[in-house]
Structures are given as C-alpha cells and as structure tokens.
Amino acid sequence: MALESQDIRARSATTTSVPPSARHFQPEVSKLIDLSRCIGCKACQSACMEWNNLRPAVGSFAGTYTNPPDLDDQAWTVMKFNETEVDGQFAWLIFKDGCLHCSEPGCLKACPSPGAILQYENGIVDFQQDACIGCGYCISGCPFNIPRLRREDSRVYKCTLCSDRVSVGLEPACIKSCPTQALSFGAREEMVAQAEHRLEDLHERGFSQAAVYNPAGVGGTHVLFVLPHGDRPEAYGLPRDPRVGPMLQLWRSTVARTLGVVTMFSVLVAGVLHYMRHGPLEVPGDGDDASGRKGKEVHP
Amino acid sequence: MRPRKPKEDLVLPDGMILRHDNGERVVHWAIAIAFVFLFLSGLAMFSPFFFWLSLAFGGGQSMRFLHPLCGVTLAVLFYPYALGLRKANRWTAADSRWVANMFRYMRKEAHFTDTGKYNAGQKLMYWSMLPIIALLLLTGIVLWQPWFAPSFPPGLRRAAGLVHAAMAFVMFVGIGVHWYAAFWTKGSIRAMVRGTVSQAWARFHHPAWFRQITGKDP
Predict the structure, then answer these.
(1) Of A15, A97, B78, B93, which residue is least crowded by CB atoms under 10 Å?
(2) For the segment B109-128, what is each residue's pLDDT rounded down to a tens digit?
(3) ipTM
(4) Rounded CA gap, A265 and A267, in Å?
(5) Whole-model pTM?
(6) Is B28 an annotated catalytic residue?
(7) Residues in chain B within 8 Å Cβ distance of A280
(8) Measured CA distances, A291 to A2, A282, A295, B106, B155 (Å)
(9) Which residues of B touch A281 (CB under 8 A)?
(10) Is B201 on the interface with A (CB under 8 A)?
C-alpha cells in the first residue's frame, strides 16, 4: 500500500510538502485484544504467517510455550506466555505481542527517509520497505520494541495491521482466525466502547483491577488491550507509560533541524560578508593595496 | 627570544620553506574528502530537506552503508595525524593573547609577532576536534546498523543519535571556519596542496616558527 490510496495522514521525514490525502472520510480503525478471553492457541500467529507468507526460523525450546522466542522480521505477532505471581498464586499472563499502531508513532518521528513510514487516515502505521534505508532509527524510536531489521535486505518489518486486507474491506488475518473472540476489529469508537463494556463484566467476575490499555503518552494506540490485571501492564510486557521521549523529540524537532541547518549555512554567509568587508589576509606587498603601502615597510 | 639553531632541512634549495610534508598533506586531504562525504550523507539523514543528497551516494541504502565506513576512515586517519601535531599545538601565553585579540585580528587591526607554526585559532580547531571526533566515532558505533546497534539498549541509541547530530553540527561549524580561514589567509591552501610557503609568508604569519627554522629574526 502506498501513496496511490491518497489517504495518508503522516509521512516520515516529510516537512516540505503535504502527502496526498484526498480521502479524509475514512473512519479510524482499531484492533481490540481481550486478553481475558485469550487461550493462547496461536491461531492468530499462524494466520499472520499464512496471510503475510512469513516463515520464522525454527528455534529451540527455552522452557516456555513462547515460540519463536520473540518478534522478528518473519514473526510480526508472537504469543508471549508470561509466568508470574498474582496474589501469591501462579498466573499465566498470555499476551499477543506486535505493533500497537500508535497515534503519535515514535518510529515515524525517528525515520530519516521520506515516505518509508506512513500513517494512514484510518490510523494504521505501515512501513514501506522500498523506501527504507536500514538505519534502524525506528527501532530505537519505538517505545514498545516492535520493529525488526531483516539482515538479508537491511529493511525493517513489523505488523501492517493487514493494511492490504483492511483497504479492501476485510478484517486482519489474525482477527479472522481467533476461535474465542478475544480479537475484534472495527471502527475505533466501537472498539473502545466494547473494551469498556468488557471491563464491567471482568469487574463483576472479581478482576477489580482490569483495565483498557490505550496509552495517552503516544496519543492512544490502534491496538487496544483489555488487561485482566490492568494495574500491572509490565507483567504482560507492556510499558506502564510509553512515550516518544524528549531526546527523540529534540533530535527530530523541526526547530532544532532548521536552526542547525541555518546556523551551518550562516557560516558560509558570514565568510562571504567578512571577505567583502575586509578582503584577504595577505603578506604585505603581495596584493593590491589601495594605500600603495609596500610590504617591506609594515612587516612585523 | 633566544636564537635557535636553524633547521636547514626545512628551507628548500629554492628558498621555499617546507610547511607540510608529503605524508601530512596526503592524510590531510584524505580526511577532508572523508569529511565532505560524511557531511553530505549526514546532512541527508539529519534533515529531510536534504535527503535528495542520498542520490549522490547511490540511494538511501548505500548511503547508510557508506556513512559509517567513511566515519571510521576519518577517525583512523585523524588520530595518528593529530598525534604528530600535538607538540606544535601546545597552548602558550602568546595564544591566549591571540584569542583576546581575535576579533581585531579578523578585522586586520592586530598582528602578532610571536605566532608559532600554528596560531591560536588553528590550535583551538585542533584541540576541539580531538574530543568531537571521538564522540562522533563512539556514538556512531552505537548507531551502526546492522552490526553494532543491536547490542545497545534503545535509550542509549536515542541519546547517541542526539549527541551524534549535535557533535556533527559543531564539527561542521568548526570546519566551516577552518575552510574560510584557509581561503582568507592567502598562501595557506598552497601550503596544504604543495607543501611549501615563501619565507615572507612564514615571516608574516608565523614569525616564531620562521625564527625557529631559519634562525633569522623575523
């Protein structure tokens, strides 16, 4: 998917022109992951591999059901089987890892290559591998540690939220495959309302700390989680308060970039003006001196 | 000042003075070329407005590949070169006087009779480049994909990006001043291209150095 869809909200490394964005009427979409309903069957993980034609390398057993052990360029969603204690009892906090499609994406902010990262009007953040230069700034810019650099082609890959399917009115492959309705996809307001509704049920069932994960530090995300233990997002592997961060903001701020470039070029301008005003520094007698002084008289 | 024993070997048979020997000049220009490559590719990655410069490097992917290699080349060439220049760049009381009168010097209202092989402006350039290139090298390694960056935590890589950009900015401003000073001071580009300067040039711009190598009073 690229610019021909004309529904681009933001485009990486683009300050000089507005991307074509004729179609503003698109509703924002969201994926809702209700972890209270997830049974860890990995159907979504398989569906993702199948639709996107991905084949992660066969790994080795590391003592958990998590396989492959982490996201990689061939595994855009991975079920994480977090083992922890809740109220003194063992708990298996199963978590579906993958891109959260932030409203204010750190990856897009960090990217130096025009158009390598796009944010569509519907909220999907999508990487355009043909424009990717392989610098990896999106990886360190991401507050969730999601993008992965593929060694073979030096380009970065991650979940596309099946932008190719969504653009033709289909739901993402992972949603299609979920047998327990832990995954839902639809208009953003509907998904937020559905998540809030699920909380009522969970609170009744005794999950008093259940919460919706939709972090404000990145402007909200287009992947929402219902966390049964919402007071402990870290236990699932989610940061409590993800932010793009002041260093990235300063590094990639238009003001800092413009000031830097203008100052650098003002050195050139200062040189021209200085030369016009004072002329070259020459050994006296070497150049044309309007006063007619000869060098031999003034040398130190 | 006390007269010194003349170093006859720096005064060539044609009367010119050897200021920069062959090796020094080759290394200097190699560093200069590496710097130009680094600056153009760095500017492309720093500001989207200049991303079109990546075309000069064969596109974004090959620019990203070449930039760190040029950087390592620059650092590997620079430090041995700088080591050889350290004695001539030792800071003296005369240099502090030069700095105090720097703006008068730039307006050609002040001239100094105690300047050694390098004036204080050149020495400031020398001493500032030592830490700046080291910082650029270290932060550059932290950012270097795909070989080194994955070994460092994301927070450190974000900080490295910021420091790398800030140091590159300082370096460019410094090199910009260096270029202009070379253009302004007639005879110094010739000195770095062909290696030699006239006795009059040495006497005028670097009198203490002139005394040291010719034994003559400037």
Answers:
(1) B93
(2) 999 989 999 999 999 999 99
(3) 0.87
(4) 5
(5) 0.89
(6) no
(7) 183-186
(8) 67, 15, 11, 20, 62
(9) 108, 184-186
(10) yes
